[in-house]
Amino acid sequence: MNLLTIVFALHAIADYASRGEGWLMNADVGSLLRRSRMKRGFTQPQLAEKLGLSASTVSRMEKGRIGVQVNDLLNWIKVTNGQELLIAFLCNADVITAGMLQGILSFITLF
Fold it and tell me: How many structural domains is the chain composed of?
């Protein structure tokens, strides 16, 4: 996936969020959510409190049993400071290096 595709994907996510639309539902999204929560060191109940959700909802979202609204995804990523995990997810990469992140940010600032 090239940088332009990533920029368009991020724009599409932001557009869905601004309109209150969009559901994501699959195990990959759940894995992203779980990795983001664990990276930050939150338990499911701790994160649920910060997001205004129940712990069971957080668990079901992480397991891919229920859909995730785009707004919830963005709030989750913000609270857990998992932006680099989201970018890696969009790039279909396991991790994103500092160099990759710098390249993406430099590219985005061109617009």
Answer: 1
**How does pLDDT run across 45-73, given as a tens digit for each residue?**
999 999 999 999 999 999 988 888 877 88
Three-state DSSP string of 20-82: CCCEECCHHHHHHHHHHHHHHCCCHHHHHHHHCCCHHHHHHHHCCCCCEEHHHHHHHHHHHCC
CATH number for the domain that contains residue 28: 1.10.260.40
Residue 2 covered by a domain: no
Give the pTM: 0.69
Coil, strand or helix: which one is 93?
Answer: coil
Q: Is residue 54 part of a domain?
A: yes
Answer yes or no: is pLDDT of 1 > 80: no
